[in-house]
Write a structure and sequence with these properties.
- The chain is mainly alpha-helical.
- Helices cover 78% and strands 0% of the residues.
- It has 5 helices and no strands.
- The chain has helices at residues 2-41, 48-69, 85-120, 132-159, 163-171.
- α2 runs parallel beside α4, α3 runs antiparallel to α4 (132-159) and α4 packs across α5.
- The longest helix is centred in the N-terminal third of the chain and has 40 residues, at 2-41.
Amino acid sequence: MLDQIEKVLKKIVGAVSIVSYAGIIFVMCFITLDVILRFALGKPILGSYEIVERVEMCLVFASFAYTSMEHSHIHVSMIIMYLPRRWRLLFYALTESVCGTMALFVAYAATIQAGTSAVSGYTTGVLFIPLYPFFWLESFCMFAFALALFFEGARAIRGMTNSALAEEIEKSWS
């Protein structure tokens, strides 16, 4: 069952991570162009700060779920490493669940903010870019992140009775 969920989740997270990849490439090229235009021609791109700020918001939130699925988050395990394996996995599952719950709260808050900014017509100050699409994207990305965290917690619970999975999980901590 977890294997099927993992396949679906990896597809969702892979789609979300494309936003992050595209965003970082765009920011690098855009800032380079802005610097060249600013110093060579004395004409910077109008609203470049706003554009980069919005794109970075998207790429950062989009990277969370991917980082979680690739087991690339930092794990501070110096205290739990002294506990028996079952306890280590239980604490790992609990922390993943707490973090997943917090990610759901952020997704919910971003959804509320998206609705509020859409109704109120909030925009950026210079280019008047509507803010609500960025909050919707943040909400979706944080929801995907929460799913990835809950999945990792479920894997840890399963690892309590499956030593091969437990070793795989603990290997990702180092």
